[in-house]
């Protein structure tokens, strides 16, 4: 099923039961351009969330995440969440909801050997792997897959070809889970359960940096959000992500600056403010150190 507009949950005639039943019966793809939209409480199936323009906020497990271009979020089956677009500017969002049987069969095909699949070609129990519900970067391969999916849907609607695109999208998401497992192995702990729990908390800190980078979050607040002491946060964060939280924060700010330089005509002082730098000099020094060019020269080279 392919939809190009979001439902109005505030409409008195909105049939919530009918709307949510769709996700149990079909794969559903939303490719929408919206402003001032919200859903306070949704219990969805396994889903993929990203935005192509603007930002959308999600509430998951008592924390708020901002999804911006170049990032995606995976939400597990039966996960409660809220979502909100709180701006007059149009936000281009893409959400894919995977029907449970479809997802289970793809995961079975991806994770089992050919011999196992021949012995049992049907997936009887609808089990799905549990993803870490954290922000991820969209790599070039995934970007190409999303462009191809959107192009197919716009040209042909939802058909067998679109379902094939969703098959490859789900296979790519398994790679995300494997990447998380490699990071878990880097956590400095002995028990596997401790490694997983510390990684979950580090992801909370990482997502908080992504979502609030313009507000200059400090280490004490970051540790409090992740329920880690400041020394433990710094040590484990460096072990897993190979940089300290402060270095990671600077990289997030600069990545956002690159997006603004390439896609807007905002002057440097506005970009400085929007990215959370104290002044233009600090921004320009950090940008040149990371990219080898002053921001204006970088912009001219990418127009």
Q: Helix and strand layout, with pairings?
A:
Elements: E1 2-3, H1 16-25, E2 28-34, E3 37-44, E4 47-53, E5 56-60, E6 63-67, E7 71-75, E8 79-85, E9 91-97, H2 100-111, H3 114-119, E10 135-137, H4 140-156, H5 160-185, H6 192-212, H7 219-226, H8 230-241, H9 245-263, H10 268-274, H11 280-291, H12 295-301
Helix pairs in contact: 2-5, 4-5, 6-7, 6-9
- Helix tally? 12
CATH topology of the largest domain: Jelly Rolls
| Rg from alpha-carbon coordinates | 21 Å
Which class of secondary structure composition applies to the elements? alpha+beta
Please give the CATH class of the largest domain.
Answer: Mainly Beta
Give helix % range. Answer: 40-55%
Number of E strands: 10
Q: Give the strand line-up of the largest sheet.
A: 1-2-9-4-7-10
Cα(first) to Cα(last) distance is 37 Å
The general outline is: globular
Give the count of structural domains: 2
Topology as H/E string? Answer: EHEEEEEEEEHHEHHHHHHHHH
Strand content: 15-25%
Q: What would the average pLDDT be, to the nearest integer?
A: 89
Largest sheet: 6 strands, mixed
The low-pLDDT segments are: none
Which architecture of the largest domain per CATH? Sandwich
Oligomer: single chain
Which short descriptors sum up this protein?
six-stranded mixed sheet, Arc Repressor Mutant, subunit A, four-stranded antiparallel sheet, 303 residues, 12 helices, 2 domains, Jelly Rolls
């Amino acid at each position: 099923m392919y939809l190009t507009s979001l439902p109005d949950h505030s409409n008195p005639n909105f049939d919530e039961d009918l709307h949510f039943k769709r996700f149990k019966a079909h794969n559903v793809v939303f490719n929408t351009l919206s402003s001032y939209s919200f859903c306070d409480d949704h219990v969805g199936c396994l889903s993929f969330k990203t935005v192509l323009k603007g930002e959308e906020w999600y509430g998951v497990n008592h924390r708020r995440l901002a999804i911006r271009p170049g990032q995606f979020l995976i939400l597990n089956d039966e996960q409660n969440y809220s979502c909100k677009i709180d701006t007059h500017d149009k936000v281009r969002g893409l959400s894919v909801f995977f029907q449970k049987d479809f997802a289970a069969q793809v995961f079975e095909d991806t994770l089992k050997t050919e011999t196992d699949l021949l012995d049992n070609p049907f997936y009887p129990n609808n089990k799905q792997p549990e993803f870490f519900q954290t922000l991820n970067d969209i790599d070039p391969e995934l970007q190409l897959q999303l462009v191809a999916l959107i192009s197919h849907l716009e040209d042909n609607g939802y058909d067998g070809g679109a379902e094939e695109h969703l098959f490859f999208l789900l296979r790519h998401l398994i790679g995300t889970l494997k990447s998380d497992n490699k990071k878990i192995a880097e956590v400095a702990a002995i028990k596997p359960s401790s490694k997983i729990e510390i990684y979950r908390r580090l992801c909370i800190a990482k997502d908080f940096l992504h979502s609030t980078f313009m507000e200059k979050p400090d280490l004490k607040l970051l540790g409090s959000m992740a329920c880690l002491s400041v020394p433990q946060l710094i040590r484990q964060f460096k072990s897993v992500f190979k940089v300290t939280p402060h270095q990671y924060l600077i990289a997030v700010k600069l990545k956002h600056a690159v997006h603004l330089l390439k896609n807007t005509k905002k002057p440097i002082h506005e970009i400085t403010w929007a990215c959370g730098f104290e002044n233009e000099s600090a921004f320009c020094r950090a940008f040149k150190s990371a990219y080898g060019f002053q921001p204006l020269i970088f912009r001219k080279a990418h127009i």
